[in-house]
Amino acid sequence: MLAALPTVDSDRIVGVVHFRVREAWAVLEPYTRAERRIRGNSYWRYFEHLACLAAVVDKEKLLSDQRLMCCESLGADAVAAIRSASVVRAPADP
Description:
Number of strands: 0
Distance between the termini: 45 Å
Helix content: 55-70%
Oligomer: single chain
Strand content: under 5%
Largest sheet: none
Number of helices: 4
Order of helices and strands: HHHH
Number of domains: 1
């Protein structure tokens, strides 16, 4: 629903869920069509809208326009620092 609202940047949403929403819609579309025959034409309209946005967008351009950082662009030292970062784990239960 948020992707359909004029106050929300749908490009940000589509950039995050692009592949997954297309994959989910491919599986869910036949079920959605069947439900619409029973319940009416509005069943899962917002999800279909999001899937349509994801289908027509140029994802590489969309991500480029969002100016997302890429580790490799920061140089070898930054990549090494990221790779060597320690993972903090929760203590084991006694």
